[in-house]
Amino acid sequence: MELNPSSEEAAAALFNLGCAYAKQRKFKEASEAIGEAINEHSLKISVALKDDDLRELRDTREWLDMMSSVKGGLTREQKVTLRAEAKAPFRLARIILFGGLGLGAAIGLLVILGRLASALKGGEGAPDLTETLTNLGINGAAVAVFGFLVLRDLQSKERDTRVTSREEELGRLLIQLGPKRVLPLIRFRGAVRPVIIAGDRSFVERCIRDGEQRIDQLRARGVSVVPVIYSSREDPEEKLRALKRSMSQQQADAKGFAAAGSAAAAQQGGLQEPGPSGSGIGNSEVSLTDQDRKWRLEPSAVAEWEGWVEAQKEFAGMEKARRNVWMQVQLDGTVRSSGTGTPPWDRFVGDLPTLDSVRTQMTDGIGPSI
Q1: How many other β-carbons are positioned within 10 Å of the β-carbon of residue 45?
Q2: What is the pLDDT of residue 329?
Q3: What is a single Pfam family found in this protein's UniProt entry (predicted)?
């Protein structure tokens, strides 16, 4: 950029730089380069959305963050507002209608108060006191009723905004699908109903085994489990598992470059065809394969999941001392239900429609958000 290129040349250079970073899996640097090209040099977002070299980048959290800050993109606040309004599509119209009627009643009340003062003074031409008091009561009641209705909708909007903000934070949490494949949970919207099971290892594994007894019915409903096992510094078994993972990784690295090279060639040569994606709230393109939609989705950056679960427990009014909890998430990312102890698998089977059901298309996400 020290050669004073034109805006088009700078955009092309930054775009190519972003593609190169994406190929090296340096997603943060790639997103920054693409974002700079869009914001500073008027690169069209559609170019970045369609380029095959950025396919893997578009599935990452770094891409989502970048899209929230570029020209023409939606900020997180705008996304939260839009999703909150979608939950109550007529609320804005009600606020405008009731607010206007309440304002008219308030203006009328001020006029009537002036007439009341004249009626109390009496004299020639003074308004009738009884009629004035009646009008005062009617307008006062109207102001109170419309004020209550507007206040109720505003409070509902505030609560929905807080709920939706938490759901957007949940969508940014990461799922580890393989050694080099990590997706934010938002990429599973429209395809998977996650059940987050958080707590001690023994509790989580017991819950998963219990769910596996109904696995065919649950999988038909798109249910996958996300085990959030609380870390413990004093857990010797966890230390042993970490040591085994480290040794396994070292053995994999020691196999040389042949396997990695063939895998990279297959990936770059298009030998790995993506499977069908979910009908996709949040899926901008084909990103999920059939293998991605597995029964057990392992969380990445578990500390972030723990933080979200603890905050959600407080938000949902659960006892913070209760360590073992579950949350069931709908296809559109709303938290449908939550509780302590073992998830009610039988209730899920009875309440949740199958993925190919008309109910899934028409009613998913309808109901209380917790």
Answers
A1: 14
A2: 92
A3: DUF3493
pLDDT cut 70: percent of the chain above it: 80
Instruction: Tell me the CA distances in angstroms from 226 to 22, 28, 59, one per residue in order.
Output: 28, 26, 19
Q: How far apart are CA 87 and CA 105, in angstroms?
A: 30
Query: Residue 281: which residues within 8 A CB-CB, separation 6 or more?
Result: 189, 190, 331, 332, 333
Number of other residues whose CB lies within 10 A of the CB of residue 131: 12
pTM of the model: 0.68
Classify 40 as helix, strand or coil. Answer: helix
Give the DSSP per-residue string, 245-303: HHHHHHHHHHT-HHHHHHHHHHHHTT-S---PPPS-SS--SS---TTTS-SB-EEESHH
The pLDDT value given to residue 232: 60
Domain boundaries, the chain: 7-73, 85-167, 173-235+274-363
Phi, psi torsion values for 196, nearest 5 degrees:
-85, 120
Note the pLDDT tens digit of each residue in 56-93.
888 888 888 888 877 777 777 777 778 777 777 888 88
User: How many helices (H) and strands (E) are present in the chain, helices listed first?
Assistant: 14, 7
> What pLDDT was estimated at residue 57?
86
The domain 173-235+274-363 having CATH identifier 3.40.50.10490: the answer here is: no
Task: Check residue 276 and give its pLDDT.
Answer: 35
DSSP state of 31: H
